[in-house]
Amino acid sequence: MSEINLNKYSRQVLFWPQGEKNQHNLQEKTVSIIGAGALGTVLANHLVRAGTGEVRLIDRDFVEESNLQRQMLFDEQDVRDKLPKAIAAADKLTRINSEVAVVPFIEDANASNIEELTAGSHLILDGTDNMETRFLINDVSVKNNIPWIYAGVVHSRAMTATVIPGVTPCFRCLFPVFEAGHGETCDTVGVLSTAVHIIASYQATEALKLLAEESDYVRSEMIQLDVWKNDYSTFPFQYSLNPDCPCCQKKTFEYLDKKISDKLISSLCGRNAVQITPNYTSSADLPAFEKKWSRLGKVQRTPYLLRLNYNDKEISLFKTGRVLINGTDDADTAKRLYSILIGN
């Protein structure tokens, strides 16, 4: 059992119902945070400061100026350096608490890799901004018996709920059908940073209850709030169990078992961008591509990615072979550019 730094965690140990035992429990746990943006940075900040044993940060994107209004671990230098969010967040968090193993993954969590990324986790936290990934997390949670905590925020409204396989209904009990392209997003109606921080703090608090093994205190309702209009309500999530749920009752994992071609192509909601991810082990030779692309436009290489400005598009090639094309939301256009610039 690991030693407790009583000086660092003294106020928390005083709070815990079982004192040092709860802190030991926390320090033995591994948490995977899917998404290191607005929600994810708040979650990671709380869990790392609390002394969680290992915190995995899984995010596909890099820091942009528009993130700074609400994504608490980033600053203007991260924007200038065009750092991947997972790396920028991990750097900050390691300086905050070097006793925690902060493990960054510059990855898009999808059906081909999410089980590997979350293997050995005691808890999965939702820091995403899209429903399809949440359905995927739900599949992984139920299949591998890993609790997860959902949260969503847009405008000044937010909600969160805790899913514990075999104990609570699952996410698909509450949202049986996923419909792409519906509803508001932060890119269309904006978002208030305080709404993000409040709901993520609720989410992190529930996480601490589970990780410290004080599950009797875990909230069984979904919280819904509007911080601008001063609305707060709870939804009896525990009564939403669907006896015909394809996921938690019939154990079919539609999103996890999705057939993926040799490349996963996805438009990023509200971003005017398309992501292309090879569905096989790949490693991009960034120096070689830099030499090839330098004839086509302005190229910038960082330790993590290569960026090209080409025909009014910004193309980012990551070391894993994943490509992010900004400036179009058309999959066919993105595939043509991929073929021209990457090949195969």
Give the helix/strand layout.
Elements lengths: L9 H6 L4 H8 L2 E5 L3 H13 L3 E6 L16 H6 L3 H12 L4 E6 L7 H5 L4 E4 L4 H14 L3 E7 L2 E7 L7 H4 L11 H4 L3 H19 L10 E5 L4 E5 L27 E6 L4 E6 L7 H8 L5 E3 L3 E6 L2 E6 L4 E4 L4 H11 L3
Parallel strand pairs: 1-2, 1-4, 2-3, 4-5
Antiparallel strand pairs: 5-6, 6-7, 7-8, 9-10, 10-14, 11-12, 12-13, 13-14
Helix pairs in contact: 3-5, 3-10
Key attributes of the depicted protein:
single chain, 344 residues, alpha/beta, Rossmann fold, TATA-Binding Protein, 2 domains, 8-stranded mixed sheet, 6-stranded antiparallel sheet, 12 helices, globular
Q: Overview of this structure, please?
A:
It is globular and about 65 Å long. Strand 13 and strand 14 form a beta hairpin. Helices cover 32% and strands 22% of the residues. It folds into two domains: 230 residues, NAD(P)-binding Rossmann-like Domain (Rossmann fold), CATH 3.40.50; 79 residues, TATA-Binding Protein. By secondary structure, it is α/β, with parallel strands linked by helices. The strands form two sheets. The protein has an eight-stranded mixed beta sheet with strand order 3-2-1-4-5-6-7-8, with helices on both faces. Strands 9-10-14-13-12-11 form a six-stranded antiparallel beta sheet, with helices on one face. It has twelve helices and 14 strands. Helix 3 runs parallel beside helix 5 and helix 3 crosses helix 10.
